[in-house]
Amino acid sequence: MAFQAKSPWRVAFLRAFAAILVALAISAHAVAPAQAIENLRKYAGIVVDAKSGNVLYESAADSKRYPASVAKVMTMYVLFQELSAGNLKLSTKMTVSAHAASAVPTKLGLRAGATITVEDALKSLVTLSANDMARVIAEHISGSEANFAKRMTATARALGMRNTTYRNASGLPDGGQITTVRDQAILGIAVYQHFPSYYAIFQTKSFSYGKRTYGNHNRVLGYLGAVDGIKTGYINAAGSNLLTAARKDNRHIVVVAFGFNSSAARDEKVRQLVSTYLPKGRRGDYLRTAMIPMPGSQGTTQVAVAQSPSAAPVFVMPMPLPGFRLAQLVAANGAQPQRQLTQGAPEVVLASAPMPAPIPADLKQQPALQAVNTLAEPSQAPQPAYPSQDVIGAWLSDTYKLGAPPAALGQTTPSAPLGIQPPAPIEQANQPIDLLTSGSVQTAAAEPPPGGWVVQIGAGPSEDSARAMLADAAGKAGNLGDFRSYVERFEKNGSVFYRARFIGFGGRDDATAMCNQLKQQNLACLAMQS
């Protein structure tokens, strides 16, 4: 009788106990990605001279680490690619999805369905380290965060970051998202060399949105009047991380320090590294050995990097539009037959804006893009974005949307790093246009003869930068001394630029031959008729 009296209680207890076990199992499964990762909270650091490429200091530089929110630097790098390619503007509005809104703090906290501009999203990443905005950017560019992470990894490989794999855009815990401080130093140099006009975003000290103002998490920003900031990061398994740079007295170093138990300890170590190694940095030009290869620009060149031997290649170049948005555009316009694409190099029409070249069919392009190329085209032919025939000016006006250069720190002028050559968006007879290299060497100027053939080395934002390009080319191709150098001033959308040219060629063949010679010296040029 006593056993029967207790039986209902025991049954209720067992049911409650079973329910607790089920709840714990579900909870454990939900947090498994965060708990399953190995504890890599171990110090690793490196200091690299951005002007020479020399490693000034390293400790466990090639050991596996988790990037944490430092992963957002690659998220911003990819976004800078899209901005430079003209696929996005700082004023472009992006929609917050339910997935983005569900990101765990730290986040900006916008609800699903809300919109935010690219510029505000960028600033929220730098200051607040907003995980939800990282997802918004990823989904807007690639359709999903998973697809965006593949592009992040492919971009890392193209930059030379061989030991880095990204799994998400924010740096939230994932055991497969690994890197090294050496790889992150490559990224810290590349983001400055490739996108000097957007680099100022990393110096943002505060960001106001709605009724709130958010301060930058980076307490080393501005130290010694030299530290740029870039990005902090923290997850429990990684500790406190920091990727930063310091520029002063015509020197430029990149510092990466991972694995600290507190942000205060991390910041103190970084301050020591900056004060010790910045005075040892190279003064003067950025050496060619320090140049990080640019994956590409304007969608004219694509680099396919497979995630695994069995995986399809991932293209890291900026596309005309993400595949999923292109497919939507075509569906809205109605599918119409398109003429067959031809293989081989596309003809460049200088009267148009720098448009991406058609993708050869054998590159295994994204399914949506392939469908667009083979099945349909917009009902109305696309109009050139720029009425002018100056493709260099068109590229510059696309690239320098921020206007002001990065804020000056110390005595370094960051907007035109010496020796840096942003990639060419257009090719003429397989000769890319070198758009910007800065320097101070003076050369003679001359008036070009009307109707003659010229070799254009590039165009820069100042007369001195154009003259430096001419001097560099003349030093590497000795017979250029037989031709006159010429700097031509022109305006584009209210901004002034300067073309660097050599004049006096007898015809197309002579100018093209000179371009081929310059190409052998790793210089870019354009043979054209004045």
Descriptive account of the structure:
The longest helix has 35 residues, at 2-36. The strands form six sheets. A five-stranded antiparallel β-sheet has the order 2-1-9-8-7, with helices on both faces. The chain has helices at 2-36, 72-84, 98-101, 118-127, 131-142, 145-159, 181-194, 263-277, 323-333, 367-375, 391-399, 463-476, 508-520, and strands spanning 44-49, 55-59, 93-95, 115-117, 206-209, 212-215, 231-235, 239-248, 251-260, 304-306, 313-315, 427-428, 431-432, 453-460, 484-492, 495-505, 526-529. By secondary structure, it is of the alpha+beta class. A hairpin with a 2-residue loop joins strand 8 (239-248) and strand 9. The chain is built from 13 helices and 17 strands.
